[in-house]
Design goal:
single chain, alpha+beta, 6 helices, Asp23, Asp23/Gls24 family envelope stress response protein
């Protein structure tokens, strides 16, 4: 192993920019996150998509989350639901940045009407952080929650059933 490889060991203090010591481009870290777990016995690599799926599932587990994703993502998700052989993406509405030891997550949701949004966001943060840290060992530095809409529950029924003018 070269001298450069030993200076970029996990105990290096360059957490702010994990690509600075390796000379790779910033986009290289977005493809695959690396986490040393076994010293000289090997290396574990965790793809960004894995962290995004964990975050998506954890966000959907919280009561009060009607849907995950912005308007465009939800429309694409609805189209995917009706196509045979496809499923809703677990990463819909989730964006992640994963480094060697840390991850940051952005979650976009539609909340149920009547739910305290600040409490909902806090519950999503707790669940996402817990799931990612337990399953990957990565430290979650932040979870940003964006609420795109509020669902009233009976919107679909009201839009077609009662009209003011006939």
């Amino acid at each position: 192993m070269s001298e450069n490889a030993t200076t970029t060991a996990p105990d290096a203090t360059n957490d702010a920019d994990p690509t600075a010591s390796t000379g790779s481009t910033p986009s290289a870290g977005r493809e695959l996150a690396r986490r040393d777990t076994g010293g000289d016995r090997g290396r574990t690599s965790i793809a960004d998509i894995v962290v995004a799926k964990i975050a998506g599932i954890a966000a959907r587990e919280i009561d009060g989350v009607h849907d995950v994703g912005g308007t465009t993502e939800r429309v694409v998700g609805k189209v995917r639901e009706v196509l045979p052989g496809t499923t809703v993406s677990a990463t819909q509405g989730i964006n992640v940045e994963v480094g060697e030891r840390q991850a940051a997550v952005d979650v976009s949701i539609v909340a149920e009407y009547g739910v305290a949004i600040h409490q909902l966001a806090a519950a999503i943060r707790r669940n996402v952080i817990s799931a990612i840290e337990q399953m990957t060992g990565l430290e979650v530095t932040e979870v940003n929650v964006t609420v795109h809409d509020v669902n009233f529950g009976d919107e679909a029924e009201q839009s077609g059933s009662s009209r003011r003018v006939e």
